[in-house]
Design a protein that fits this description.
This protein has about 400 residues and is of the alpha/beta class. The protein contains 13 helices and 18 strands. This is Imidazolonepropionase-like amidohydrolase.
């Protein structure tokens, strides 16, 4: 039995934005008690926090734990064992930055999720989709123009190519067979893909609806990579539940997000990082040139969505050596969002997206004992979250990690 007692914790109630001082008793991975003067077993580890702020463990709803390089085509030629070793290192770094749960948006599989759950590797609790579904020439097709054979591009990468309703259904069913918590489709062009345009739409409506039907049949949902308002609207009309990125949305797309009660997962830090470090991390010159198309629009899209009342979850989408900038997303979002709303995006909103409301992203009895202890109040100084060095303790499932 694991037993941890945190004394004198200044706990943030993310729902109300209010702090309260008390003790937190964690037993067997869950929060067992919250109150004053709590007592634990003699074998318990006791930490006096001296009134330091305590938040729920953070949730990043858009990561790629296997993306150890920005050269996604080159990644496909790596040994799966080598990729797994890098993924273990990347996941440990995420945990040390305060992220106790992440949603992988393509690349990770049941092997990594099982290894983390069984304690074989140290990292965030992992929700995965397997490989993202892409049309030929879409964002998940990493072949340069001169490569014709499909098998040359689809080994150990982040995506798989499927064309036509029947093939898309089969691919969706295959990812669900392997345990995917959600499915992902590439519904527009992207930065890291070599042969498409950012402003393209991808997959027909029949193909998109087929993926949604398969996900819903398995009580799962679909996430869509989409930048433009047109691509976002098409995906939402097909029944997609979460929009990834959305840098080029307009007010009509915001209204559609609200009307369909969908989630938006902006990933602003990745464009900042790609602009500054993408070439050094393996991003091709052609892809690097695309970054400007979405970089400057990202903050405006976030502000538009926030003003429109969209449910916004926290995401980063970093690649290669740029994973270390994960917490910088807090600082970037603070340019247009209040700190409490950003914190909610990385706790309660992300938990709702994952279907884990009340179990993660909250400090409450019965929830997973995932907590972070900070050096400073993030409600008045967002750098308490934006700078990983100001995280004093990370606690996952009741263990100080």
């Amino acid at each position: 039995m694991t037993d941890l007692l945190l004394r004198a914790a200044t706990m943030l109630d993310v729902a109300t934005g209010e702090y309260s001082l008390g003790d937190i008793h964690c037993v067997d991975g869950l929060i067992a008690e919250i109150g004053h003067g709590l007592r634990a077993f003699e074998s318990a580890r006791v930490i006096d926090l001296g009134g330091a702020p305590v938040l729920p463990g953070l949730i990043d709803a858009h990561v790629h734990v296997t993306a150890a390089t920005a050269d996604l085509r080159g990644l496909q030629e790596w040994s799966p064992a080598y990729v797994a070793a890098h993924a273990a290192r990347i996941m440990r770094g995420m945990l040390e930055r305060g992220f106790t749960t992440v949603r992988d948006a393509s690349g990770a599989d049941f092997g990594l999720a099982d290894a983390q759950a069984e304690g074989l590797i140290s990292g965030p609790r992992l929700f995965f989709c397997g490989k993202a579904l892409s049309q030929t020439g879409g964002h998940g097709d990493t072949r340069p123009r001169g490569v014709r054979v499909l098998e040359e591009c689809c080994g150990a990468g982040l995506g798989r190519v499927a064309d036509g309703v029947d093939a898309v259904r089969a691919a969706a069913r295959d990812e669900l067979r392997k345990g995917a918590h959600h499915l992902k489709v590439m519904a527009s062009g992207g930065v890291a893909s070599p042969t498409d345009r950012i402003d393209s739409t991808q997959y027909s409506m029949d193909e998109l609806k087929a993926v949604v039907e398969e996900a819903e049949a398995a009580n799962r949902y679909v996430a869509a990579h989409a930048y433009t308002a047109r691509a976002v609207t098409r995906a939402l009309q097909a029944g997609v539940r979460t929009i990834e990125h959305g840098n080029l949305i307009d007010d009509d797309a915001v209204a559609q997000l609200r009307a369909r009660d969908a989630f938006l997962v902006p990933t602003l830090v990745t464009y900042w990082a790609l602009k500054n470090e993408g070439r050094e991390s393996g991003l091709s010159q052609d892809s690097w040139r695309k970054v400007d198309d979405v970089l400057t629009a990202g903050l405006g899209a976030l502000e538009r969505a926030h003003r429109g009342g969209v449910r916004i979850a926290f995401g980063t989408d970093l690649l290669g050596a740029m994973h270390r900038h994960q917490n910088t997303e807090f600082r970037i979002r603070a340019e247009v969002q209040p700190p409490l709303d950003i914190i909610r995006s990385a706790t309660t909103v992300a938990a709702e997206l994952l279907g884990m409301t009340g179990r993660i992203g909250t400090i409450s009895v019965g929830a997973h004992a995932d907590l972070i202890v900070l050096d400073g109040d993030p409600l008045t100084d967002i750098s308490a979250l934006a700078e990983p060095g100001r995280i004093r303790h990370v606690i996952q499932s009741g263990a100080v990690v």
